[in-house]
Amino acid sequence: MEALFARFGADLKERGCFALGGQIIGASIVEAPRQRLPQEEKRQKDTQARWTEKRGRVEAKQGSALDSAETRLV
């Protein structure tokens, strides 16, 4: 375990960073509950949504593959 921390410290030092002695570094990975929607809610959820409403204006979402002719509302 000490060799691992020594290697980690050396890698940090090469990158211009350092860890002070006595600090605890930790992380946890937890399982998130799966989203289970009833059939009625699934029908309402639009996974292909291309439009968004922002400050009262309806516009195409950024990054969508729509051209300028498709983004106009009539």
Can you walk me through this structure?
The protein has 74 residues and is α+β, with helices and mostly antiparallel strands. The protein has helices spanning 2-14, 39-44; strands spanning 51-54, 57-60. Strands 1-2 form a two-stranded antiparallel ribbon. The chain is elongated.
Low-confidence stretches: none
- Number of E strands: 2
Tally of helical segments: 2
Q: Categorize the overall geometry.
A: elongated
Q: Give the strand content.
A: 5-15%
Region (Disordered): 34-74
Biased composition (Basic and acidic residues): 34-60
Keywords: Plasmid
Protein name: Transposase
How would the blueprint of this fold be written?
Blueprint: H1 2-14, H2 39-44, E1 51-54, E2 57-60
Antiparallel strand pairs: 1-2
Keywords: Plasmid
Biased composition (Basic and acidic residues): 34-60
Organism: Azospirillum baldaniorum
Properties at a glance:
plasmid; Transposase; 74 residues; 2 strands; 11% strand
Summarize the structure.
The protein has 74 residues and is α+β, with helices and mostly antiparallel strands.
